[in-house]
Amino acid sequence: MELDASELGTKEYWENSYTREIQNYKNNGDVGEIWFDEGSQQRIVDWILKQEAVDKQSARVIDLGCGNGMFLIALANEQFTQLTGVDYSPKAIKFATCIAKDQSLDIKYDVADLTQSEPPSLGTYHIVHDKGTYDAVSLSENPKEMRTNYLKTVVQLLHDENSLFIITSCNWTRDELLVSFEEFFTEHCTIPTPTFKFGGKVGTVVTSMVFKKRPTN
Predict the structure, then answer these.
(1) Which comes out higher in pLDDT, residue 173 or 216?
(2) Full 3-state SS string of 125-190
(3) CA distances to 50, 66, 127, 129, 217 from 55, in Å
(4) Domains, the chain, with CATH or none
(5) How far is CA 190 from CA 47, 196, 200, 208, 210, in A?
(6) pLDDT band of 6, cuts 50, 70, 90
(7) 3-state DSSP call for residue 28?
(8) Residue range 73-84: average pLDDT?
(9) Could you list the residue ranges that cross the membrane (predicted)?
(10) Of 93, 91, 96, which is closest to residue 17 (Cα–Cα)?
(11) Pick from 176, 201, 200: which is nearest to 190 by CA?
């Protein structure tokens, strides 16, 4: 199943959006809106903090489609030191860089398109985070090819088979992500998210999952 293409899957939409966000920030200090599920960022941060194997000083973390960079700012405030954010929108990177600078935080930001057939050279990381970027890719004009390129890029970003790919989606269920990711990743766990009950069935507004890359033979 494919989602219908949307302006949310275009670079032009995000460039225009972050142009407005930058102006709002300059005018009143507003860091901008959270795309969906305001509580998911803190849930992910809390989950990371509970992982004994994750060392705040040595763990390299990259946020894919970082937007205004608030996820990385939350980690920086928890004393994580090796933080990188990437986005294909130069305006998003400008915005995130400005916010981090104003808060005297040392976070690295780069413009990078993760959907190209040739993955960008960004190094490797112990934690790769995605909130909504896979969703946006899925809303593009050529979603199947774009998603495949994106997932191949994620594989290369993961430092080793113990590295974690954390993804939060508002468009795809756990079962759908398992099917889409099975070629590249194995499920590590599902991070609990708020549920709702409708017609006697229980569902979730968003899906948050953690994957590891498949071992190479």
Answers:
(1) 173
(2) ECEEEEECHHHHHHCCCCHHHHHHHHHHHHHHHECCCCCEEEEEECCCCHHHHHHHHCCCEEEEEE
(3) 11, 22, 11, 16, 29
(4) 7-213 (3.40.50.150)
(5) 11, 17, 23, 6, 6
(6) low
(7) helix
(8) 97
(9) none
(10) 91
(11) 176
Amino acid letter at 135? D
The pLDDT assigned to 62 comes to 98
In the DSSP assignment, the letter for residue 60 is E
Q: What is the DSSP letter of 3?
A: P
Query: How is residue 14 written in tokens?
Result: 């995000």
Contact 203, 174 (CB under 8 A): no
DSSP H or E run through 85: strand 82-87
Contact between 209 and 167 under an 8 Å Cβ cutoff? The reply is: yes
Angle (nearest 5°) at CA 54 between 129 and 206: 35
Q: What is the pLDDT of residues 10-45, one digit of tens each?
A: 778 878 888 888 898 888 877 876 666 668 889 999
Query: Which residues lie below 8 Å from residue 109, measured CB to CB, with a gap of 6+?
Result: 66, 69, 84, 85, 86, 87, 93, 96, 97, 100
